[in-house]
Specification:
CATH topology of the largest domain: Aspartate Aminotransferase, domain 2
Keywords: Amino-acid biosynthesis, Aminotransferase, Histidine biosynthesis, Pyridoxal phosphate, Transferase
Bound molecules: pyridoxal-5'-phosphate
Pathway: Amino-acid biosynthesis; L-histidine biosynthesis; L-histidine from 5-phospho-alpha-D-ribose 1-diphosphate: step 7/9
Mean pLDDT: 93
Largest sheet: 7 strands, mixed
CATH class of the largest domain: Alpha Beta
Order of helices and strands: HHHEHHEHEHEHEHEHEEHHHEEHEEEH
Number of domains: 2
Helix content: 25-40%
InterPro entries: Aminotransferase_I/II_large, HisP_aminotrans, HistidinolP_aminotransfase, PyrdxlP-dep_Trfase, PyrdxlP-dep_Trfase_major, PyrdxlP-dep_Trfase_small
EC number: 2.6.1.9
Shape: globular
Family: Belongs to the class-II pyridoxal-phosphate-dependent aminotransferase family. Histidinol-phosphate aminotransferase subfamily.
Length: about 400
């Protein structure tokens, strides 16, 4: 007897005649492990409105310039051999990555996106009752990766939305097996310096794996290089993860990778599915690495429009709207005045634009907005200004689109 039936018909004698109460003993059924049942499902970026209309997506940090034409051609060419298994060792990709970044191919593990690599790290190095540590407002995959293996997800306090190395170190216990740090971080866009990252590593026990998630590293200026790969090359307990989903514009290809000590990579490969990536994704990723012009153009676009958009948000300062300083391809915008993040989220959606509202991550007062095409960013800035005015806080004169 479902709640729907109960609500749809009155509980009269007639109702009982046609639907006699049946409470059979519960059938045995597979029960998810309690730590799996405790997982809050991942919520992806919206692509359609409540009415099903297609939206401009500023909700998943995808590349507004698309994909390298060379990568697209390689992806398409892979349809010539659909009956053949992909190379389970991804040898050509690991060699291409090794040559591109000056890394040893045998110390690279490939994943179904870097999400899988993050999961492999938890799966190989943490288990029931262990602790996995990350910063509050960290990437939403970390708690899922922790719970999946029965480990406790532990959140350290942030410092003004950024990673607080002291808080992380203070939260380390004898049970801490893995520490995840995204740099730049998602959803905040904040950045941890090379010196701070080195200090974090130096303060961790050597049997604790530090995972430096560099999904947005290509958006950093050269002087902000965080030294992650150098730590992974020289230390026994550091893994760096990278992805082709962001600046390379290959989110649909599902290719990520990790670089670390041989023993760490070897353990992760033991639990990796043998054919975890498709041929098209592998071939496209190799081609994408070779298209430096596309990557440079993507970074230049991001620099320009992230800077412009941050300026527009700063001009709304007297409305209680402000931006967390970002070094990634998105900006976390805080709504601390009369216009709420929820109202702004729905208002932008009504104007055809999807952003990421994150009440489930402790950020009901914030929207994460991907840096999109110029015209779209101008629309977002104008809409925020208009909505702030409608909410009763008058933006200062002179700025705006
Ligand atoms: C987008 C993202 C990833 C990876 O995504 P994949 O598509 O699985 O490679 C990893 N970490 C962070 C912080 C991200 O934002």
């Amino acid at each position: 007897m479902t709640a729907l039936a109960m609500g749809a018909l009155p509980a009269s004698g007639l109702f009982l005649e046609y639907f006699p109460p049946m409470f059979p003993p519960a059938e045995p059924a597979p029960a998810p492990k309690p730590w799996i049942a405790a997982i809050a499902p991942y919520v992806g970026g919206r692509a359609t409105s409540d009415t099903g209309a297609k939206l401009i997506k500023l909700s998943s940090n995808e590349n507004p310039l698309g994909t390298s034409p060379k990568a697209r051609a390689a992806f398409a060419a892979a349809t010539n051999a659909l009956e053949i298994y992909p190379d389970g060792a991804a040898s050509a990709l690991r060699e291409a990555i090794g040559a591109h970044y000056g890394l040893e191919p045998e110390r690279i593990v490939h994943g179904t996106g870097s999400d899988e690599v993050l999961h492999l790290a938890a799966g190989a190095f943490a288990g029931l009752g262990d602790e996995i540590l990350y910063v509050r407002y960290g990437f939403s995959v970390y708690p899922i990766a922790a719970r999946r293996v029965g480990a406790h997800p532990i959140e350290a306090d942030d410092r003004d939305y950024a990673t607080d190395v002291d808080a992380l170190l203070a939260a380390v216990t004898a049970k801490t097996r893995v520490v995840y740090v995204a740099n730049p971080n998602n959803p905040t866009g904040t950045y941890t310096s090379r010196a701070e990252l080195a200090r974090l590593h130096a303060g961790l026990p050597k049997d604790c794996l530090l995972v430096i998630d560099q999904a947005y590293t290509e958006y950093l200026d050269p002087e902000d290089e965080d030294g992650g790969l150098e730590l992974a090359r020289t230390q026994p307990n550091v893994l760096v993860t990278r992805t082709f989903s962001k600046i390379f514009g290959l989110a649909a290809g599902r290719i990520g990778w990790g670089y670390g000590p041989a023993a760490v990579i070897e353990a992760m490969n033991r639990i990796r599915a043998p054919f975890n990536v498709a041929t098209a994704g592998l071939d496209a990723a190799i081609a994408a690495l070779g298209d430096k012009e596309f990557v440079a153009r993507s970074k230049a676009h991001n620099d320009t429009w992230r800077g412009w958009f941050a300026g527009e948000i700063a001009a709304l300062g007297n409305t209680g709207i402000r931006a967390v300083p970002s070094k990634a391809n998105f900006i976390l915008v805080l709504f601390e005045g009369k216009l709420s993040a929820e109202t702004a989220y729905h208002g932008l959606m009504a104007r055809g634009i999807a952003t990421r509202w994150l009440p489930g991550q402790g950020l009901p007062h914030a929207l994460r907005i991907t840096i999109g095409e110029e015209a779209v960013m101008r629309r977002v800035a104008a809409a925020l200004r208009e909505m702030a005015g409608e909410a009763g806080s008058a933006p200062s004169e002179g700025e705006g689109a």
